[in-house]
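Re: the request from the purification team.
They wanted to know what the chain is likely to look like in 3D before they choose a buffer screen. I agreed to run a prediction and write the result into the notebook, where they can find it.
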Amino acid sequence: MFSSALAVVAALELALAAVALRGPCPGRWVALLGCALAYDSAVVAAGTVLGHGPPLETLSTGRYLLHAVLTPLVVPCAAMLLSSGRVVVAGAWGTAGALAVAGAWATLPGLGLEPRHWADTVRYADAEPGGVPVAAVAAMLLLLVAGAVLWRRRRVPWLALGAVALFVASAAAVVVPPLGNAGEALMLAGLVRSVLAQE
């Protein structure tokens, strides 16, 4: 049941990415993030079919890589949604780059994956996680702050609501792992809706 639900989440994330790609700036960057999130959900959805083994483990390594490198895209996307000046947007890109390097450095060296089961899902997860993913949390906090500013300035609540949904779902994912993917989809929906609000 949950594997099928994750497949639906992956399809919805791809659809949101396609919508973002046709939207105004920063639509193409949101679309890239959406494709990465769809990949993540699709790999977990496919775990039941693929089972344990090198194919699923290799695909799961890609999940960690994409999360580390592309999650910080939310920072410049938020800056562009706020119509910040060139200096601020450039700073946001610099921050995103630093967070991507920090996230990759904290996650990828020595990454040891082991199979995990939950309900009908099979996924590979880090055997020895290094604690709180500081870079990802920092990116999400910046997204939440930008969402609150966008809500106050322009009465566009979607960015803030998506960030809140992600935080709540991420906390619940400790008990119900697929909720993490659902929270990412809601965050993506908030981003896409905020992009479209500029039209």
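For the purification team: The chain has one domain: 2-196.
Please add any questions underneath this entry.
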